[in-house]
Design goal:
503 residues; 11 helices; 20 strands
């Protein structure tokens, strides 16, 4: 994060759930697919003369649809001291990158969302002693530039033991169109859902809807006590026809509504490559239905599969409007991590319409920049407008995001305040909690690693603010701080990405 254009000290703040404040200028807002990118993989967003930052992908995989949401600029606190955004726990962008690199190419810049890289690695924040959330703040000198500081603001949701989780009514909506025959992606879907079914309890139930050229109900809601029947229905799936995602989702929501559990978890789980060519084929055509059912207490989680003929934009936006999360499944190991270790523990939503507002003290902070969360922006004045949609967080979820700020003096405490506002899904009551921003003189090992992850994402998306950085420097920091299987895998990916890119 070398910033040669700025001569004073900056503070990089990592916030567990973050977005940008209203009125910040953004770059190219156009949807892209890698097949439409010019040679070198650069997006049409302004990149200056930094051609060497462009991923050398060309059009390695056709019809990969991504959208560039811009890159947050620095904002002067004298002009706008507030940064407001909706919570987000998606991780799909990171695994999309991993799939590209594992196949020997870099992802298109438009495929990289910084916050999803960071949140792929859940931080070890202590859970709250009471209430829905605990806010944690720490920080210290940035590893990517003299005179800079890195600050983390982490949010940890309360944990709920599996034995105390509410019963779940899950409706699997499965894409069985012809495109799901590519790379055996439907077979990976089937293996993934088997993992999830195996983790469900006797109080849970599963229904199944499939769609190709048209949607149809395959299995009426069935108790997880009868896992053999559920698994038999999954095992019989074969690819067929075109892709009518709209009808599949419509039938899935109808099944979820008909068997709605008033004191339970009601969720539609979409497994697809995100491509629709029958009925409403765009996010704009499908989202109104998704939002209506989300308002009635039926959430939507989306799980993407496949390289080539894949629509990341649709899958991410459906989950956003459906009060759920978006994950991309590139391997069976990822399916196990998501469906067995992550999803089943976070099925129960503990807070809806979660919004974060960071207020910086203009007397101590000159300006700030949020890393990522560009598509989670909320107007500052809508922070306490409870009709404005926010994010949803499940039991035990963590969220982390990054800010860069330039301090006016030497003070490391009293830099501002983080506020989290949310609605209790059971009572409908809105609550708000706050924590002051302060940093120390040293970074924790965990935070150093997350700094490496964030800088990697900034480089891969061609961010102006990382133009003097290198994957070699990121790798050096990651190697020194990585611990555990997933973090060590990130180091390997960095080595491969650097070799592909040539630095």
């Amino acid at each position: 994060m070398n910033r040669h254009v700025i001569t004073h000290a900056l503070v990089l703040i990592a916030v567990t759930v973050v977005g940008c404040s209203a009125g910040e200028q953004k770059e190219g807002e156009t949807a892209q697919s890698s097949s439409q990118l010019p040679a070198g993989g650069a997006s049409p967003a302004s990149r200056g003369d930094d051609a060497y930052l462009r991923p050398p992908n060309g059009a390695a995989y056709e019809d990969m649809h991504f959208k560039h949401y811009g890159t947050n600029p620095f904002v002067a606190t004298d002009e706008d001291r507030l940064s407001t955004f909706a919570a987000d726990v998606d991780t799909g962008s990171y695994t999309v990158m991993r799939n590209y690199v594992s196949r020997g190419s870099l992802p298109p810049e438009d495929a990289v969302r910084v916050e999803e890289f960071i949140n792929y690695f859940p931080a070890a924040y202590p859970p709250p002693s009471q209430g829905a959330f605990a806010i944690h703040v720490d920080g210290g000198p940035s590893p990517f530039g003299p005179g800079y500081d890195l600050v983390r603001i982490g949010i940890k949701g309360k944990e709920i033991a599996a034995t105390h989780r509410k019963p779940a009514h899950l409706v699997f909506v499965i894409d069985v169109s012809g495109s799901m025959n590519r790379e055996d992606r439907l077979e990976l879907v089937k293996k993934s859902l088997r993992v999830l079914v195996d983790r469900l309890g006797e109080q849970d139930q599963v229904g199944i809807v499939v769609y190709g050229s048209e949607g149809r109900k395959l299995l009426e809601p069935t108790s997880a006590e009868n896992k053999e029947r559920i698994l038999a229905a999954i095992d019989q799936l074969v690819p067929e026809g075109s892709t009518n995602a709209e009808e599949g989702l419509k039938l899935g929501y109808e099944m979820a509504a008909e068997h709605f559990l008033r004191d339970g978890v009601n969720r539609v789980i979409l497994c697809s490559d995100g491509v629709a060519n029958v009925g409403n084929t765009s996010a704009e055509g499908i989202l109104p239905t998704i939002e209506r059912y989300a308002g009635e207490g039926i959430a939507l989680s989306t799980f993407g599969f496949g390289m080539g003929n894949y629509n990341d934009v649709l899958m991410e936006q459906l989950a956003d409007k459906g009060n759920g999360s978006y994950s991309y499944i590139d391997t069976f190991s990822e399916a196990r991590r998501v469906f067995a270790e992550a999803l089943t523990g976070t099925l129960q939503t503990i807070a809806t319409d979660v919004k974060i507002q960071v207020e910086f003290d203009p007397g101590k902070v000159d300006r700030y920049r949020l890393l990522g969360y560009e598509n989670r922006d909320v107007r500052d004045e809508d922070f306490r407008n409870d009709r404005t949609d926010g994010g949803e967080i499940g039991a035990g979820h963590t969220v982390t995001a990054l800010y860069e700020i330039k301090r006016k003096g030497e003070a490391r405490d009293g830099l501002g305040t983080v506020r989290v506002r949310y609605r209790d899904p059971d009572t409908g009551k809105t609550s708000e909690t706050a924590q002051p921003i302060a940093i120390g003189e040293h970074l924790s090992t965990e935070l150093k690693f997350l700094a490496a992850v964030a800088e990697c994402a900034e480089i891969l998306r061609g961010s102006y603010w990382a133009k003097d950085s290198s994957l070699a420097a990121v790798r050096e920091l990651a190697e020194a701080t990585a611990a555990g299987e997933e973090q060590l895998e990130f180091v390997r990916l960095l080595k491969d990405a650097a070799a592909i890119r040539g630095n």
